User: What shape does this take?
Amino acid sequence: MKPAIAKPLPILTKDDWLSLIPAMGRANRNLAEYNGRLGRLPNSDLLLAPLRLQEAVLSSRIEGTLATMSEVLQFEAGELPERESRREDIEEILNYRVALDTAMQELKSRPFNLNLLLKLHSILLKSVRGQNKAPGEFRRQQNYIGSRIGGVERIRFTPPVWSSLAKSLDNWEAYYHSQDEAVVRLALIHAQFEFLHPFLDGNGRLGRILIPIFMCEHGLLSQPTFYLSEYIEEYRDDYIDHLNALGTSKNGWRDWTEFFLTAISEQAKRNIEKADSILLLYESLKQRFIQAAGSKYAVPLLDAAFERQYFQAAQLEWKGNAPSKPTLMKMLQTLERNNLVQMYRGDAGRRAAIWWIPELTTLFDSKR
Ligand SMILES: Nc1ncnc2c1ncn2[C@@H]1O[C@H](COP(=O)(O)OP(=O)(O)O)[C@@H](O)[C@H]1O
Ligand SMILES: [Mg+2]
Assistant: This one.
């Protein structure tokens, strides 16, 4: 298969644009509604922490990473996974959060550019596994996208030759900041990025993390918390088929864009529901924590624990004064008797106990 030849963005024809107007309208409406919902969410950093993590887990899962959200949270609480490969999965998932935070920090002082893209790539691929994948560097060799059918690896797509990348990426970066309608621009930015496949690995994860970054930078969202990977993972075959069809089907780019706009519309609705159900659970836990613990530390404890889901007593970060250790232990035991927290792992020797909030974890398990 000969390497594909990239066209400069925006690629869509005038008729394509016209035919996409209804899908554009729906995507913008639903996105605006979700953004409005975010604005009314109290304590949104805290409440959205689980959703952020879920996005990182699902974005990695699309390409076969197996670790679950609970395993990541348990790891952060100090529980080591049994197998080394699982630990690498977890590290890659945690890289997502560092990359997103770095991007938001850097965007405060300058617009998105290819240097930031390289930096994000090096953060995402920071692991034992990523070392030989040229983290932080555009590729200087041909790559292939394969798929395994009946145990045989088959090449499905051959991205453009590497010597053409510099020019295509300049066009890509310029188009990122162009004046075209934002949601369509985002659809094209993602697809062209995957088409160019500028890195040896990590193109999928990097392409997906750009979605909340772009939305935030262009004012579609007030915070980088748009989680598309749930939809993409659910419709993974369609996602891949549409990417495959970009260069080969007559309406490939138009059809991809429509698929992507629908994904945004649908996921925006789900994100609203998720934000609502987290808020509902938080409010209910708050009442019950206060009732059971009867202490001024009840809500600070809930807040500190909510962010981690799994935690050791010493890991909790307190906004105001921290309770003494005996007070905290007594409170945890009372909450445990009321089934509000549970001990995930008891203490043994120098290993501290790990606690968790089962209802919070269940909220995400049942959604998966
Ligand atoms: N035919 C295709 N054309 C363009 N991009 C594709 C195609 N098939 C899959 N992709 C994209 O390539 C990604 C996988 O590339 P890879 O560099 O291994 O990323 P990662 O390591 O993050 O999974 C998929 O998640 C998808 O976004
Ligand atoms: Mg990969």
